[in-house]
Amino acid sequence: MSGLPDVLRFDDATHTYTVGGIVRPSVTQVLSRMHDFAGVPLDVLEAAQERGTAVHLATQYHDEHDLDESSLDALVAGYLCGWKRFTADHAPSWTSIEAKGYSQRYGFAGTVDRRGALRHAARAIVDIKTSLQSHRVWGMQTAAYRQIAAEEDPAWALARRFTVQLRADGTYSLLAWDDPDDWPAFLALITLTNWSNKA
Length: 199
Hints:
- The protein is α+β, with helices and mostly antiparallel strands.
- Helices cover 38% and strands 28% of the residues.
- It is globular and about 50 Å long.
- The model has no long low-confidence stretch (mean pLDDT 90).
């Protein structure tokens, strides 16, 4: 938890964010109202979650120049290859990697995968996915992360928003989100979530 604001705590085991001892909803929890996995078999869901976690760690250690690639599972190595291709194509310069953040104004928390600059974007919020199919809620997710960044530094209010969708075969897609309704849609969801959580 080093580097986090004093008011924000994160429990990795339960994936729970607390502020001042009070549990706060995460971005992914808020978005579950729009995109849940109720129909997905538990073993499939658990495997996807483990894969996503492993890929996120691999890309993080790669970007921090602290990755032992010989330790990677072959499947994870394929996704990492896609990340390397993205890096070569878009020349990112990251100002934060896997950074926990909290929106004081709206009462939600989350982990911003990457924040920084790309070759074609002076300020970019970037989320990493390993799902086979993209989903429009990813645009809402990046809008929420941009709100967290903008509360820390107003210059990020106009940051561009992207998802890097990695694939096991070493390819990737860069998805740009520019729908102006992404943030109002998320705001409606967090408002409903906070209302529902009132005692």
